[in-house]
Amino acid sequence: MIRFYFHPTPNPAKVALLLEETELPYETVPVDTSKGEQHLPAFRAINPNGKVPAIVDTDGPGGKEARVFDSTAILMYLAEKTGRFLGAPEDRPELLSWLLFIASGLGPFSGQAVHFQYAAPEGLDYAVNRYRREAERHYQVLNDHLEGRIYIVGDTYTIADISAWGWLDRAARVRKGEEDPLAAFPNLKRLFQTVDARPAVARARAVGKDHAFKKVNDEETKRALFPSNYPPAA
């Protein structure tokens, strides 16, 4: 059984999609990051970095319980566990390269673009421009790579496509003010639509819907989400 520590944000969404695609048995454990539950000792024992997603596999390697944190690590772990969505063996170098491109580039710059456009104080125009333009540059790199391709790696749907889907699903927030945020990146838009049409996506979107996550953006939420912005308690 997989215990899946979840909050409805892009990186957990990737893991939700892969779990639904593989049909592995799992239970969802809500972690309300707006309430600071990611900082509780019980969760820090699973992910010392205090971020979602994370999983605990009660039937890990050798039959031992295994924890895995970071969305890319979880995607790789579950794909290897099931032997699915890894593409052809000869494509493994490409798969790793694009997974880490998303993990170290497209994802973080998208997240910072959202942060500086929606959460940061006004007047930080340089940061807003820097992170949004870098997110768009990563979009363009992937868009160019997808010319003449259906999927990111090889000829089949892989965890690279799942990883990209998680953040492309939030393109409207990354490219704030754009009516059709992926219109300038037609190959990327096609990839997103291809993945988004899969039956497992609807099931992944339903994950956590039965839990009332906090939606109020108050002082508690800001301190929970951005603790490094505040001095440590005396």
Model description:
The protein has about 230 residues and is α+β, with helices and mostly antiparallel strands. It has 2 domains: about 1-85 and about 200-230, Glutaredoxin (3-Layer(aba) Sandwich); about 90-195, Up-down Bundle (Glutathione S-transferase Yfyf (Class Pi), Chain A, domain 2). The protein has 10 helices and 4 strands, in the order βαβαββαααααααα. Strand 3 (about 55) and strand 4 (about 65-70) form a beta hairpin. Helix 1 (about 10-20) packs parallel to helix 3 (about 70-80), helix 1 (about 10-20) runs antiparallel to helix 6 (about 160-170) and helix 4 (about 90-120) runs parallel beside helix 6 (about 160-170). It starts with a strand and ends in a 9-residue tail after the last helix. The mean pLDDT is about 95.
Write the layout of secondary structure elements.
Layout: E1 2-6, H1 10-22, E2 26-30, H2 41-44, E3 54-57, E4 66-69, H3 71-82, H4 92-118, H5 125-145, H6 159-168, H7 171-174, H8 186-196, H9 199-206, H10 219-225
Parallel strand pairs: 1-2
Antiparallel strand pairs: 1-3, 3-4
Q: Can you identify the CATH class of the largest domain?
A: Alpha Beta
| Overall number of strands | 4
Q: What percent of residues are in strands?
A: 5-15%
Read across the widest sheet, the strand sequence of neighbours is: 2-1-3-4
The CATH H-level superfamily of the largest domain is Glutaredoxin
The succession of helices and strands, N to C, reads EHEHEEHHHHHHHH
| Radius of gyration, CA atoms, in whole angstroms | 18 Å
So how many helices? 10
Pfam family, one: GST_N_2
Protein name: Glutathione S-transferase
InterPro entries: Glutathione-S-Trfase_C-like, Glutathione-S-Trfase_C_sf, Glutathione_S-Trfase, Glutathione_S-Trfase_N, Thioredoxin-like_sf
